Amino acid sequence: MSSRSKILVTGSNGQLGKELQDLVSSFPQFEFVFLSKEDLPIHNFELVRIFFDSVKPAFCINCAAYTAVDKAESEKELAFQINGEAVGVLAAVCKEHGTKFIHVSTDYVFNGEATYPYTENFPTDPVNTYGASKLEGEKQAMQLDPDCIIVRTSWVYSSHGKNFVKTMIRLMNEKDSISVVNDQIGSPTYAADLAGTILQIAESFHAHNSQLTAHGIFNYSNEGIISWFEFAEAIKEIINCPCDVKPIPTSAYPTPAKRPGYSVLDKTKIQEAFGIQLKDWKESLQVCIDKINKKS
């Protein structure tokens, strides 16, 4: 690899894409190329191949995703095109060009019925279209580029874009009381931490050149196991808001897409393979809210 490897980032307008853009100056050994869906339709094999021929990236980080979980139930074809087919296209072109493919997936590939954290090889069984489409993307990536890296994550939020944290802040400032489900359990992931982890993985491959053989699926989230209600309570505490947050069961808040009840991921593998240091969810939440406050 050249001394300054090129990293191609798809889905540049999403939460994770924006967080990666914020980290560019911290990784001067890389030259970044950011692409939105308007810049390159990643499900189009020939266009992607032509683009790779001209840019010759050493890494491709795929942050492009269809993430509207409820809407996916009525837009199945589109969800599978973006989360499944397009991932296969990127994987195939990465394999052809010797580009290290890093793809982001989700805890929603599991059915949420476990009682202990999911390891990477736990049997998948998605309960909604979004999860099924993301699982299809994983399968295509592994089949078409067996050397790829897939990072599964959960409950992603950021100071960018739309997410649970920003929605809660808005609702708490607008209403006297809100209700949040307390029987869905998981671990939040601050997208800035996820972005840093992905670039640390890229840096490991860059530094070791061809000696690093790690590949396959790796789990990543912040440390800590909480419910959405506890997440909301922590947000309320940090923003010092008098809004009354009430716990409710999932059954009291029906949605078009079923949600997994338990989404905790075991992160041992990513820590051991790449020396990743996990951050506590509450510390990262504070950092994110501070950033949101600076923007407002």
Structure report:
This protein is an alpha/beta fold. The chain is built from nine helices and twelve strands. Helix 1 crosses helix 6 (about 190-210), helix 3 (about 75-95) packs parallel to helix 4 (about 130-145) and helix 7 packs across helix 9 (about 280-295).
Order of helices and strands: EHEHEHEHEEHEEEHEEHEHH
Number of domains: 1
**DSSP helical segment count:** 9
Structural class call reads alpha/beta
Low-confidence regions:
none
Spatial order of strands in the largest sheet? 2-1-3-4-5-10
Count the strands?
12
Q: Helix fraction?
A: 40-55%
What kind of oligomer do you see? Answer: single chain
Q: Give the CATH H-level superfamily.
A: NAD(P)-binding Rossmann-like Domain
The CA-CA distance between the termini, in Å, is 42 Å
Based on the structure given, which CATH architecture is correct? 3-Layer(aba) Sandwich
Beta-strand proportion: 15-25%
Instruction: Indicate the overall shape.
Output: globular
The radius of gyration is 19 Å
Would you give the CATH topology?
Rossmann fold
Short description:
The protein is of the alpha/beta class and 296 residues long. 41% of the residues lie in helices and 17% in strands.
List keywords for this structure.
Rossmann fold; two-stranded parallel sheet; alpha/beta; 296 residues; six-stranded parallel sheet; 9 helices
